[in-house]
Amino acid sequence: MSQLEIRNLSASIEGQEILKNLSLAVPKGEVHALMGPNGTGKSTLAKVLAGHEDYEVTGGSVLLDGEEILGKEPDEIAHAGLFLAFQYPLEIPGVSIANFIRAALQSRLAEGEKLDAPAYYKRLHEKMDLLQIDRKFSSRALNEGFSGGEKKRCEILQMSMLEPSYCVMDETDSGLDIDALKVVANGVNLMRGPDRGILVITHYQRLLDYIVPDKVHVMYDGRIVRTGDSELAKELESRGYDWVREELAGSPA
Amino acid sequence: MSDTDTQTIDIDRERGNFRYEVDYEYDAGTGLSEETIDYIANAKGEDEWITNFRKKALRVFNKLPLPTHWASRDLESIIFDKIRYYLSQGQMPSRSWDEVPDEVKETFERLGIPEQERKFLAGVEAQFDSEAAYSNMKEALRKEGVIFVGSSEGLKEHPEIFRKFFGKVIPTNDNKFAALNSAVFSGGSFIYVPPGVKVSQPLQAYFRINAESFGQFERTLIIADEGSEVTYMEGCTAPRFETSTLHSAVVELVALKGAKLQYITVQNWSDNVFNLVTKRGWAEEDAEVKWIDCNIGSRLTMKYPGVVLKGKRARGEVISIALANDGQHQDTGAKMVHQADETTSNIVSKSISVGEGRATYRGLVNMPDHLSGCKNNTECDALLINTNSRTDTYPAINVQGNGNSVQHEASVSKVSAEQIFYMRQRGLSEGEAMSLAVNGFVNDLVREFPMEYSVELKRLIDMEMEGSVG
Question: Are the Cβ atoms of B441 and A94 closer than 8 angstroms?
Fold first, then answer.
């Protein structure tokens, strides 16, 4: 099955359970939004999917096109086709964006195979033009001294160059002004297609004005509590998250 | 004689970690005494003044204590009586690779030396244990009067220039290991560049240790006459042995009025090598001496390249990169001794400590108060990868006089687990991620290198970091 499928996933950090039997599936060709109040485990989910070693998976499975990725190393998961756009991308001083993406692409080649440098730069420049990013940007050190908007643009550029099968975007809209938000949304929309599934994690409806999701999932206390279409996001925007909390409190455990 | 069938070739993933069985015609045996020196002098057919110089140096060596009051006590692990001080196959260096003995030629071919020579070098000297096996330079430079030979040959053929500067920049009693070198030196390069001659491509020497329990003591003297320019590059490797190996070189540089002399080292010692090297240059009026020093590998490296700024407006620069991996200690730094007005010096040191690796920076900047218009800039940056690594900085800055200025900056940063995770999420292995972080850290310095050496350095860093992943 061509999808990112999370089945009954439970995970904890330092003994505290954060994800509680969470299930969710993003098929190729679709964009799903994952919404929820702060502290509900959205970013934990993103990191667990990417294989972060600080989290202990206590149950469930995560299948990428039917293949289990839990327990794999972060680079193996990346090679399997999962890309995580970080909420807080890290600075790597002295390493240019161009060299970094090149190393990432090189890591996907078989041993002894070498990336065709002229073809690489040609493609990089095409993508940058498409994303309306100044070409000079690629010679800057990765995320070093970048504004919030620049960091997110850089994530989108990496994503479009690596062409992953599945993208998980962790609060990509946080801290962005409206112009940066449009650039990011434009990038995601360009990446939409039948060969790719995208999970957009966000706290606010705002981003979903520009990226219209096929489905919206509401996460609360470590699991998915509601799933609907893009109307659900609008409902959350107008009513806030309190009604979710109240509804859950009122329902039998 | 060893033939191809019985040759032992121990090869590991590192390019330098292999050795050939070689029959040495000259072997001074183990231990160090006046007889050892007589043996070396006899093997080389040296003039008496050199033998006397050596014997005097031996007495100084025996008298001086190990510098363990400030340096690592690991120095005490060197058993001087168990070291072999001279090993050679008893022939003058060849001018053609075809004439180099097979095992030696194969060694340098595996290290890529003849290929580099064809591609971008003006001249090459290749030293195998105690003596140069190959030494050659482009004909055009010979015609311009440039001399580039092994130090043994230099002493024989050009004593009038050699003797004038030999032991003047670094006196025998400078330190215990300079004295040791002065007693048993063999090999190294002698270079003389006549006034106004600008050597556009680098001259390169490659120092290879092949024998176990051996000490390599090359002695290099480079003289750039007035207004000349030259770049010299040294590379070095040794296979990995069970017992420790000693490399203790002395390198003296002389830049006469208006000359520019650049000395680049990219060393890749295996981690049983004690690398205790004294390097210093003189810069006369308007002259420039620049050291670019990349220290990778070795068990303990102690090396503080210096420049004595003797003439007005002389410039000195030390750019150093040290990578200390598990079980290694890089104790490196720089010395700038200002002796004339308006002299300027620049020190940029970057060290990387990985795992249990330890990096130490020691600096000395001296500006007496009768001088004016002198400037020094010192920058020391350390990068730590994982919590066990250790870095120390000991800058000694002695600046007097109001007309002089000094700037000192130091920083320590860490490669965090989150940075590694971020890079791995993009597909890089742990080793590749660390390697990229290290390359990024030294990137601004590497940009100053000739392209070929920056590629080599990057390759060495990649190899070292790949190997450090547990």
Answer: yes
